[in-house]
Amino acid sequence: MTRRSSFLNACAHLSVLALVVTLTACSAPAAKTPAPVAPTATALPAPAAPLAGLPAAALKTQFPPIVPPPDNPTTPEKVELGRQLFYDPLLSASNAMACATCHHPDLGFSNAAAISPPRAGAPGRNVPTVWNAAFNRHLLWDGRVESLEAQAVDPLTMANEMAAAPAEIEAELRAIPAYVELFDAAFGGREQAVTFDNVTRALAAFERTLLSRNSPFDRYVAGDASALSPQEQRGLALFFSPQMHCAECHQPPTFAHETFRVVGVPSEDPGRAGVSPAGVRGAFRVPTLRNVARTAPYMHNGSLATLEEVVRFYADGAGRANGFPSVDPLLKGFELSPQDLTDLVAFLHALTDESGLPPVPQQALSGLPVAPRIASPAR
Q1: What's the pTM value of the predicted model, to 2 decimals?
Q2: Where do runs of H (alpha helix) occur along 50-135?
Q3: How many CB atoms lie within 10 A of CB 202?
Q4: Which residues are known to be catalytic?
Q5: Within 13 A of 4's CA, how many CA atoms are on the CB side?
């Protein structure tokens, strides 16, 4: 196959969901700050004995540090408060929508819809996953936000999303003794701790605990030769092939990258150009492939239903085939066999790890029902 060297150059730009509608705003430090949680270890176990033939790029196991802002150190009390708030529809004006409505734990912390409602300055886009958002420097498809704290305000307050008024959120939460106790434990100050800023801080603290880093791939790299099937091992070889370069954009261990690339999915969305004078029109952040099998449909506009469709899109030359401008020079199309396709998709499934999913409340502290659990077809 004479054009195969382009394949994982293209695969490297699998614009699968990725980034994350997360939550929060910032304000002055709280009156009482509990002792911070010890920093979470961000490295996977070192391989006891590297498996024969593993490419060097696959052995990059050191995750970026998780660095909360100085005014919001992570504590167990904040995380528990954030967990309860994340699932509570009380945060919406209708009392019918929670953070988990769009970031559902059974759908890879996405929602299985092609796009979400449009926002100011951006059209509707596919809902990014919250898994491993703690490692991201840029959030959302266009990277307009650079902290989880800064990200929360829009989804909580926009008229076409949760549509809540900060003062109303505060009043409703203060009327619930269980929430007053949690806010006091997290921030100190009894009823005075129940503020909109602290709502967003707690949500961000919770989201920083949503870590996926113990997939079959990770166990295989750590020395467990049985963690990947023969088919998944063939897919790994394709993904890390020096001729195909998938891992140059979807770099381990996050399988993401803090760059913005034009892949050319048919769309009028300006992407990075909509938020940065230096941005290229139609460029979007390279999303994580962690738990990608859970977050269909794919691309910034949810236009591709399956991972197989995504791979075929790149095989056909990505947007170059349709004359889309400024398509990344690596995306020139490629040939691959049916076996290559199924092997690569099998490897992408082997990047799944939901063992870090915290318990989902049976009922919200407000007494309102939480989003019902879903039997995901990807499982």
Answers
A1: 0.85
A2: 76-86, 99-102
A3: 29
A4: 161
A5: 11
